[in-house]
TrEMBL record:
InterPro entries: Glu-Q_tRNA(Asp)_Synthase, Glu/Gln-tRNA-synth, Glu/Gln-tRNA-synth_Ib_cat-dom, GluQ/Sye, Rossmann-like_a/b/a_fold. It comes from the Bacteria. It is an enzyme of class 6 (ligase). PANTHER family: GLUTAMATE--TRNA LIGASE, GLUTAMYL-Q TRNA(ASP) SYNTHETASE. SUPFAM superfamilies: Nucleotidylyl transferase (SSF52374). It comes from Ideonella livida. This is Glutamyl-Q tRNA(Asp) synthetase. GO terms for molecular function: ATP binding; glutamate-tRNA ligase activity; zinc ion binding. Belongs to the class-I aminoacyl-tRNA synthetase family. GluQ subfamily. Binds 1 zinc ion per subunit. A motif ('HIGH' region) lies at residues 13-23.
Amino acid sequence: MAASRPYVGRFAPSPTGPLHAGSLVAALASWLDARAHGGRWLVRVEDVDGPRCPPGTGELQLRQLARCGLLADAPPWWQSDRDAAYQEALARLVAAGLAYPCHCSRRAIEQALQARGWQPTRHGGTPYPGTCRPGSPGVVAALGKGEAGAARIPAWRLRTDRLQPADGLLHWQDRRLGSQHQDLALAVGDVVLRRADGLWAYQLAVVVDDGAQGVTDVVRGEDLADNTPRQIHLQHCLGLPLPRYLHTPLVLAADGQKLSKQNGAQALDLDRPLLALRQAAAVLGLQGLPTGELPLADWLAAAVQAWPWRPVA
C-alpha cells in the first residue's frame, strides 16, 4: 500500500457543469485530508469525455475552488492532454494478453445475459458476460454486427477472469467504510478501457493518472466506492502502487438520491464561499468549527484540526 510514500491527494472533477454542493464536499474532504497529513493536494480536470464537457467549464471549476480557498499545490492536469499515456497503457495490457477488442453492442450483451437467466435489477449494472473474450466458449459472430450487418468498431476490455485471490473476491480496506470486497468478474465482468466511440473510459484514465501523479490517497464520494475494485484490478495489471481509499458521505437531494445536475443541484454561490464550506463541513461531520464571519484561511485551518479521519500509518 501507500504507507511509505509521501502523501499525495487529489480532487478530480468532471467539467460537465459548475461545481455544486456535492462537488464541494468531495473537494473539501480531499483538501482537508491532504492538509491533515501534511501532504500535497492536486487538481485534475477529468475532461476525457469531451462531448459532455462544455467549453470553459473546467476553468470555471478552478475559479470556484480558488474562491473557496482550495488551492492546489501544482498546476492542474487536463485529461484531454493525456491521450498518449492512455494509449501506452492500453498497448501494455494488450501485449500482456490482458485486454482485447469487444464488438458487442449493448443489446447483444443484454441478450446474452438473458439467455443465461440474468434479470436486471433497479440501480444495478449490466455485467459483461465475456462473449468476445478470447477463448470464451460460445462466442457468437453475430454479436459483432450492427442492425444492418455492418461490423462494429470495437471497444477494448480488461480481462477479469485472471484475478489472483483464491476465493475470487477482490478485498480492500476503506478508511471510512471498513473492510470491503467484491466478486469483480461476476458483478461487473470485463471492464471497458476504451469505448467504441474512441473515447477513453474513466477507469483507465483515472488509474493511469493517479499512478503518474503519485497519488497515495483517493478521497471521494461514497457513490464511487463500487469503482474501487475495478481500479485496484487495473492497478495490479499495470504494476502500479495501490493508493488508500476514503469514501465520504454524500449530499442528497429531496428524493433521497445523490445530488446532481439531473435532480436540481445548483452551482456554488461564489459570493458566499464560507457558507458553502460550512454546509460541506456539516455533511462531513466536522464538529466544533468557529461560527461568525472570519477569514477563509482561518476557518480552513480550524477545519483541518477538526478533520475526523486523522492521519494513518
